[in-house]
Amino acid sequence: MDEERTAAWWGRRAWELLSAVRARAPLVHCVTNLVSMDIAANALLAAGASPAMVHSLREVPEFTPRCDAVCVNVGTLSEGWLPSMRAAASAGRPWVLDPVAAAASEFRMEACLSLLALRPAVVRGNASEILALASRSLAAAASSSSSSSTFKGADSTHDSGDALQDAKALARSTGAVIAVSGAVDYVTDGERVVGASNGVAMMQKITATGCAATALIAAFLAVVEEPSDAMAAAACALAVFGLAGEIGMESGAKGPASLRMHLIDALYCLDEQTVTSRVRISLHSHHLTVITDRESCTPRKSSSRIQFVRYRPGMGILNSEIDGH
Ligand SMILES: Nc1ncnc2c1ncn2[C@@H]1O[C@H](COP(=O)(O)OP(=O)(O)OP(=O)(O)O)[C@@H](O)[C@H]1O
Ligand SMILES: Cc1ncsc1CCO
Ligand SMILES: [Mg+2]
């Protein structure tokens, strides 16, 4: 994932992956919440994948190994389902975790942490969910975030950018790609960050659009050549889903219910020209602030932009400049 990967490169990659999903119709096993089953299955179908909502522990060990990818979503968690989730996650297939409302209860948080230990390729959540998960998972590293005071169930009370640093730390500590959805969907492997800025705010008013996006990431994960392409799978799936939302809105949606219908139609109808020209994914260039004198500093990190700040004790910051690398 280098900086030469331009917006045009991402557009072509998104089209390549969507085309592969349509050509190969990967079987995506979802152990997902009861609210999301319909929209997730329909989004998968519209994108060209084959959804299967299976959650009995009597079936999972036999069924999951025959699938191409797995989506585990704790939205309507119950004690009986957790062993099925763990079995599906352990079946050796690439899998994605959706930690819906991770902070809702200790039971749910413990379940999410135990699933995280089973090494998902990707975790996709809204900002509040990723902040909550990171703050518990990284407790030893004293994460600064606290999300419980504003907890609002399955909906986020934070912007995706608020969770970016915690997402990177969580990615580094778990080895999973972390995707934080929002106005910009950030996707990180702990070092690199890409932002996908497709989508419309009205998507938040349709329940379980995030869950459907997670299921779509699983479908894209099923068709990437290398497990290390999990970042591309997540970014492209989120951009394509957001683009379907944009086109759905342009198609005359009047509110959440009609947007839901138009979004699924748009996902089904996406063509090469539309995807390559409208997918908006870019490398997120972050600034590392180095408080020092310009001349005396050798940048330690060359993959990001470095901000040199002239600082004099008692006088604060005098001026700054950005070095691009
Ligand atoms: N402000 C926004 N502008 C544009 N798109 C958005 C915005 N907020 C969310 N989205 C898009 O809506 C979809 C769902 O993301 P969201 O963060 O709402 O998930 P979520 O909270 O997990 O949803 P749910 O729990 O209902 O499944 C994603 O594709 C995301 O890109
Ligand atoms: C509303 C809701 N409650 C549990 S799961 C879910 C769907 C959005 O995640
Ligand atoms: Mg969610």
Automatic annotation (TrEMBL):
Q: Name one Pfam family in it.
A: HK
Supply the EC number(s).
2.7.1.50
Tagged with keyword S-adenosyl-L-methionine: no
Provide this UniProt record's keywords sorted from A to Z: ATP-binding, Kinase, Magnesium, Metal-binding, Nucleotide-binding, Thiamine biosynthesis, Transferase
Q: Which cofactor does it need?
A: Mg(2+)
Q: What class of enzyme is it?
A: transferase
Per the record, what are the reactions this protein catalyses? 5-(2-hydroxyethyl)-4-methylthiazole + ATP = 4-methyl-5-(2-phosphooxyethyl)-thiazole + ADP + H(+)
Pathway linked to the protein? Cofactor biosynthesis; thiamine diphosphate biosynthesis; 4-methyl-5-(2-phosphoethyl)-thiazole from 5-(2-hydroxyethyl)-4-methylthiazole: step 1/1
What GO molecular function terms would the record report? ATP binding; hydroxyethylthiazole kinase activity; magnesium ion binding
Where are the coiled-coil regions? none
Q: Name one GO biological process term.
A: thiamine diphosphate biosynthetic process
The UniProt entry, under InterPro entries, shows: Hyethyz_kinase (IPR000417), Ribokinase-like (IPR029056)
Describe the function of this protein.
Thiazole kinase involved in thiamine salvage pathway.
User: What's the family?
Assistant: Belongs to the Thz kinase family.
> What protein am I looking at?
Hydroxyethylthiazole kinase
Source organism: Oryza meridionalis
